[in-house]
Description:
Structural class: alpha/beta
CATH class: Alpha Beta
Strand content: 5-15%
Largest sheet: 6 strands, parallel
Helix content: 40-55%
Order of helices and strands: EHEHEHEHEHHHE
Distance between the termini: 45 Å
Number of helices: 7
Shape: globular
Strand order of the largest sheet: 2-1-3-4-5-6
Amino acid sequence: MGPDKRLLAIGATTWNGIGEAIAESAPSRYGVSKPTPDEMDVTGYNHVKKFLEENGPYSHVVYCAGVQYLGKLDELDHTDIQTIFDVNVIGFINVLSALTRTQKSGRVCAISSLAGRVPMTGSIGYCASKAALNHAVRCAARELKENWQITAIVPATVADTPLTTSVDEQVMAIRDWDRAELEKQERIRQPFGRRITKDEVADVVWATITGPMTLTGSVIDLAGGA
Length: 226
């Protein structure tokens, strides 16, 4: 007998990333699909729709695809800004649009960021993209109503992921900080005193997408009081 639930984990093929942790923590009754970017290019609507038509339906979808490039306003690479929005926002909308054309119900959870509500120097593109993602969740939930659960999880900095490592290096370069100063500034911003773990994010995602359908429209903080 096959699985009675099916999870589509988008952006889960990065080693040691949040998506991988979510996919690996799936209960045994779930079949898990982790398409590579070549198999599902979220920035192309037709590519997304074709994948879903050939492989769906999915009872649960977690959108973990995301990119971040830092840069101050007078140094921005506008190709980077376009890529940030294409992946972080347009990709999510592409997935929702294709899902609603290929199935009648489902639960969709996006991994957002504290940057969606906290302004950060040198991060205008990423912050704006995550704010847009959060509002896309709310808009979709309002439109799709009772057959769908559309949510987002908003963690603060997540420990030991490739994205976090990249961002740490970019922040230290932009602000001329060493590691000690980076950690000091982070403690000031994040009163809980440590970074969020991937397992904590996975736990909250699973609690959400298996919880009440009335959670739809929720943008759930996992930010340690920040």
